[in-house]
Amino acid sequence: ATVSEPAQKCCTENIQPFLTSILEELMGPVSSGFTDVRSLFEKEVNDISQDFQKTKDMTKLKENVDQFMNLPFNSVKMEPCYLKVNLLQELLQDLKSRFKVYHIDFVIQRTQNFMQELMENAVYTFEQLFSPSHQADSAKVATTIEKVKLRVLK
Q: How far apart are CA 131 and CA 124, in angstroms?
């Protein structure tokens, strides 16, 4: 009872007025990183589709989809997405001194983990909805890839 009122007052005066601007500032790099994850997914699916349209080779398509399933673990391709979140390092330095925010690396790492998890879910869902082994008509494969891609991106 003795601590509650001063704590409420402290939060109301010293923290709450800044929350909206802090969240806006932090969401810039986070949103940018997640947008890059989405764009990478879309680019990779488009590449699979274009390759199939050129070759019409179902075996190659299956290989490309199998390789696509490893995208979340491909550090070279995922790195640009992760780098966007590294901007939080600079933004959180100011918060560290003003609000005693510690473990900045943990915040960045968890955000990057969520990005990887999102990509894992996207490629898994794509693979479940589009299985090249179930595609009998090669004329419809490119259309099916596009429909599945749009469904996953939704």
A: 11
Which pLDDT value is given to residue 46? 96
- Outline where DSSP puts E strands in 84-127: none
Is residue 83 within 8 Å of residue 111, measured between CB atoms?
Answer: no
- How high is the pLDDT of residue 133? 59
For residues 107 and 91, give the distance between their C-alpha atoms in angstroms, rounded to a whole number. Answer: 12
Rounded to whole angstroms, how far apart are CA atoms 64 and 116?
20
Give the closest residue to 72 by CA, choosing from 108, 123, 34, 111. Answer: 123
Give CA separation, 68 vs 27, 36, 45, 81, 151, in Å.
28, 16, 8, 17, 17
In this structure, how many other beta carbons lie within 10 angstroms of the beta carbon of residue 67? Answer: 12
Torsion of CA 58, 41, 81, 66, to 10 degrees: -30
- HSE at residue 151, side-chain half, CA atoms within 13 A, is 14
Which pair of structure tokens corresponds to residue 149? 């891609």
- What is the tens place of the pLDDT at every residue in 112-126? 999 999 999 999 999
CA 136/CA 138 separation, integer angstroms: 6
Residue 67 makes CB contacts below 8 A (sequence gap 6+) with none
